[in-house]
Amino acid sequence: MTAGTGADPDGAVLSRPVLDDGPDLWRLARDCGLDVNTPYAYALWCRDFSDTSVIARDADGTPLGYVIGHLRPAAPTTYFLWQVGVAERARGRRLARRMLDRIAERFAGLGVTHLEATVTPGNAASRALFASFAREHGAEPVWTPLFEHRHFPAESGGHEPEDLVRIGPLHTPDPS
Q: Which DSSP helix (H) or strand (E) runs through 84?
């Protein structure tokens, strides 16, 4: 297994995205019903933030999911998870959690102590994902309101509020 890549227990291959993965991330976001950013944003993400992101593919190379995030410039010990997407056919296999664990493995040696993300109040799947991740890493998820309706332009069609989850300090799970 090379650094940053490797087969998952169910055969999914997790690796750092490369520039050519940008269109796949965009399509996954669209197909998952996520807030879809411009294709340019996903291409840029794959170029500039590949070390803090993961793409999962099946044995045939078909994209199954991704996690994109970055280290916060004002708080470099904090990883901000921007978006998680898992193809419908890959749901129920803990793929999102395994991709998140892969990211945590990468930042274990970088001095990262906390993970942050924003989640809409009704997104039970993401809330469960972060609760599970926090438990496994010996931390508590702390939820606070962050973005309200007024932080999004009304002419954009509106946006649900987003709560911030902050998890940390993170501890590496015991592999036994």
A: strand 75-86
Helices (H) and strands (E) in the chain, counts: 4, 8
Regarding pTM above 0.85, the answer is: yes
**Rounded-to-integer distance, Cα 93 and Cα 115, Å:** 22
Question: Length of the chain, please?
Answer: 176
Q: Which two tokens stand for residue 97?
A: 């959690």
Rg (CA), the chain: 16
Distance between CA atoms of residues 70 and 47, nearest Å: 12
Relative to beta strand 114-119, strand 54-57 is unpaired
Distances (CA, A) of 78 to 45, 67, 69, 116, 121: 18, 16, 10, 7, 22
Which pair of tokens denotes residue 173?
Answer: 């799970």
Q: Which of 39, 35, 43, 124 is nearest to 82 (CA)?
A: 35
- Summarize pLDDT for 67-105 with one digit per residue, the tens: 999 999 999 999 999 999 999 999 999 999 999 999 999
**Which residue in 20, 18, 26 sits closest to 54, CA to CA?**
18
